[in-house]
């Protein structure tokens, strides 16, 4: 579903990604771990077609980036630590707006379905600026799944959430993953990713330093695996 | 070769219909958000009214001299208020990551540009339509001249066409509030010169033959810079 070969990303003289290789099979949930400044967000922004690769090949669902970016965007849902929502619009107005941008054919029905999925149907007519951070993040997931994408990218979705809101977000993430979507999620929170992901990749110094299936590792050893991968990179 | 994956919910629209739909969606979103917050319009309006008020007291002019400076005072007011609006309009997209949300949509990105530009133009025209009668009263000058209204429309289109493009560039920087006027004003000098000359011509009853070159310059500028923005917006907003 996702194929990345020899990806290099430079910002001026600074090289952030150094010939990164990365593959994800359909239906996999990959947790992308790594220290600050490792290039996780830059990598996700390239996958999301928000940033152009300096060199290398990026293919999502068989479409090349950046040349077939529009086809990729149609199959992609993105959630970042920012909600990407308009505070002065209501929850349903936000979804309706994004639905129009994606050209959804049966918009009202889909908006209702998504609001129920993220547990915000009762607050559909409330302004987003009155929502708590957790509710905004759930609506952000609703926005990202509105067009029923095959691939979901999550960039530190738990940032700024309290324990309850994080738990609620995890439930929504599980529901999203159960629907057979391919998911790539960056995170610092190893404990949370241990419960969600089917594979763990460690991104360090601009390359994938280590990768392991969740079935091959005891969740209690994940921290040791991560530390070793970062140290050896 | 393309992989065999299930079809997404999003249908591949006809390009023109998709472009128009996305553009109108952005305009609708800007109008709906502004109707609730009134943040942008009120800031532009208060600023514009303060500027003409300050000019009124600063320039203690006789009636004849007033008519000669009217065009200049008006366009300075529109330019300053317009910069405020352009900055705020794009900052609203950037602050909560909404610009990324727009860029993730599977539409031609120039539809986003045109949507934002039309929204900005509507806000600017609303402010101008309020400023004109206030100016008329304060300066005791009749500004309800069809020719002047045409110049204001053409000048505003040129200003907003360039301003929307440059504000989407400036908003990516930390110094966006300062950077926009520094980038914008040198580029829109032809619009200001042409707009002031044409406005002045209409207000002073100059013959159409003398005003025509300035109107032509405004139209040419509008067409060229709208076309340039259409071509480069995708590159401006992508990292």
Residue share in β-strands of chain B: under 5%
Q: Mind telling me the CATH superfamily name of the largest domain in chain A?
A: P-loop containing nucleotide triphosphate hydrolases
Which class do the helix and strand fractions of chain B yield? Answer: mainly alpha
Average of the residue pLDDT scores of chain B: 88
**Largest sheet geometry of chain A:** 6 strands, mixed
Structure description:
- The complex is a heterodimer of chains A (233) and B (239).
- Chain A is an alpha/beta fold and 233 residues long.
- Chain A is built from eight helices and ten strands.
- Chain A folds into two domains: 2-75 and 150-232, P-loop containing nucleotide triphosphate hydrolases (Rossmann fold); 84-148, no CATH class.
- In chain A, 36% of the residues lie in helices and 27% in strands.
- In chain A, the strands form two sheets. In chain A, strands 6-7-8-3-9-10 form a six-stranded mixed β-sheet, sandwiched between helices. Chain A has a four-stranded antiparallel β-sheet with strand order 2-1-4-5.
- In chain A, helix 3 crosses helix 4 (107-117).
- The model of chain A has no long low-confidence stretch (mean pLDDT 89).
- Chain B is mostly helical and 239 residues long.
- In chain B, helix 2 runs parallel beside helix 5 (109-139) and helix 5 packs across helix 9 (208-237).
- Chain B is globular, with a radius of gyration of 20 Å.
- At the A-B interface, helix 2 and helix 3 of A face helix 1 and helix 4 of B.
